[in-house]
Amino acid sequence: MPDVVLVEGPDRGKVFAVDGGATIGRDRTCAVRLPGRHLSRVHARIERRADGLYLVDADSRNGIFVNGRKVKEHLLRRDDEIEIGEFVLVFDPGFDPKVGLPQRMTRTVATVQETLGSPFTEPVSDPELRAAFERLQVVLETAELLHAIDDEVGATKALLERVMAHVRAPRGFVMLVDAGGKPVPAAKSAPPGQDEFTVSNVIHHQVSRERRALLGYDVARGGPHAGKPVSILCAPLVARDRYLGFLYLDGPRESTTFRRADLHFAAALASVGATVLSNLRRNMPEKRCDVERIWRREIALPRFLVELERDCIEEALRRSGGDILKAADLVRLPPPQFEAKLKEHGIGAEPPPTADWKSVEV
Question: pTM higher than 0.85 for the full model?
Fold first, then answer.
């Protein structure tokens, strides 16, 4: 009897029977329930047809991937790897999940090779490298006091240039989240014709939700290298527990190798960049929420309350990393009412700014 086995994501190792067909998504009614933020309520279906079982996209927002390629429908074969959101499942696997999943499995979809929560709290075996990062920690603490850069565009470009001056990579990007929690382009460095990129949700989940810098592999989802393996270094931009976006480097796997020292270095500089960006953004909400504006007759109370509500909703989205359910809980509103407030204030309704390169698909 065909099964699908969860090999990547929460509840790793769970087995789902799909012989007669099944629905896949985050809704409680789905036979294959995957409670992830990048999934639709009913994301996909497995349908029994005359020639076998088919995986069919149920008009989901983020799509489905089989063996690294995006599909609308696919005739499932043994050991096919299905990537849905931050989850990876194997159809009718050639291993027995009852005796445990293999420690290492051949991946044709995104694989997280190594993660890092903090460049300083986790041990480093090399004494010279450890000493270098102890000195760099002092630099970071000093950097938090400096506000030499007063322009967000300039700050993101400087951050990317500094990282790529010391870490060899063909391409680099900085993405910043908007008020609705959607990543939008801020800075790039890429060869002509190679300035589009798509980050797998498996990797993006580690960075945006777990807030961990990582080394990993994936297959290129588009552009001239589509279908070919790529090496990835990705670090979150986090300041005061606020997720601002991420720094991303990649290159063809056969010619691009990132080391653990590169991971530490990029994560440290991402911390510096996040601190600067947070300081640049900090003053705007404080000015809008200044109650003295009412007494100075600069704004009427009803209008002030509208602005205050909008600021609270935007901040909840930032703190939750764009997770609507968590953001609604932060402001103590039922999710349907919170979504209505998003529409009322136009938050997340506008498309990201037009750019000449593609933003991350999540």
Answer: no
